[in-house]
Every structure is written in C-alpha cells, then in structure tokens.
Amino acid sequence: MMVKYLKAKLHGLTVTSKNLRYTGSIKLDPAFIERAGIAPYEAVLVVNTANGERFETYVIEGRRGSREVGLQGGTARLGEVGDELIVMSFVYCDPKEFRTPVTCMYRDNRLWRVVRTNGTQRAERRMKGRGK
Q1: Catalytic pick from 5, 22, 58, 106?
Q2: Looking at residue 85, what DSSP letter applies?
Q3: Sheet arrangement for strand 69-72
Q4: Measuring CA to CA, which residue among 24, 45, 40 is closest to residue 89?
C-alpha cells in the first residue's frame, strides 16, 4: 500500500523578497533545496506562520549563497518580507520506507540543524531551543 508522506521540510525560512511581476513560484537559495532534498520545479506546500496562509507552488533556484526566500507572482500577495515560512514536499511510498529530513533554519536563513524523522520520532521535540 502506498501512503502520502512528508518527503522534505524546510522549517523556519524567513521571506527576504517579493516579486509580483513573475509567473509564480517560490525562489530559494539552491543550498536550501539541496539540503532538504527538494528538486527545482518540484511542487511544494508552503505555510506562512505569520498569517496562516497555505498555498501550493513550485520551487525555482535563486542565487547560491544568497539565503534568498522570494515569493514570486501571485504568491507575493500571500506574505510579507520578514514572515516565517514552512516549505514541504510530499511523496507516495510504502510505510516501511518512510524517513523524512526536516531542515530547520535560524531567522536569518542560516542552517540550524537537520532532523531525520520516521513514524516513531517527532521533529517538534527537537525544535526546542531554536536560535533567534
């Protein structure tokens, strides 16, 4: 049986730019998506923790080393510079193969830690003490 699971999660990204005049997506520093295991143009679910918005879009690569998190096109209306985001991708797999990396970030978009989870672990317990 195949079940839909969280494949990758970037937790605590901070929006650094908005560009309404684009066809739509979220622009991320390639280091972020590589660390999380998300591919360019992969569909993602984005949660804006500042305003509660949830939206689906796709990832495009920004400039490496820029720490950029840019809301593009229509998604630019769903957040503001400084808002904190969670970016997630999903996969269908056998429950026995399930293992998710959660990539946690500081507020300035520096990597804090990567937590590997499976069905018996909870990443939320590991988030305690996250730097500001």
Answers
A1: 58
A2: E
A3: 17-19, 69-72, 25-28, 54-61, 43-48, 84-93, 3-14, 100-105, 111-117
A4: 45
Instruction: Supply the DSSP symbol for 37.
Output: T
pTM of the shown model:
0.77
33-58 pLDDT per residue, tens: 998 889 999 999 999 999 999 999 99
Query: Domains, the chain, ranges and CATH?
Result: 3-121 (2.40.40.20)
Q: Which of 25, 41, 89, 106 is catalytic?
A: 25
Q: For residue 58, indicate whether it is catalytic.
A: yes
In the beta sheet, which residues pair with residue 5? 91
Given a cut of 80, is residue 131 above it in pLDDT? no
In contact, 131 and 112? CB cutoff 8 Å: yes
| H-assigned helices in 27-113 | 30-36
Cβ burial of 70 (10 Å; 0-12, 13-18, 19+) is buried
Is 22 annotated in the active site?
A: no
pLDDT at 84: 96
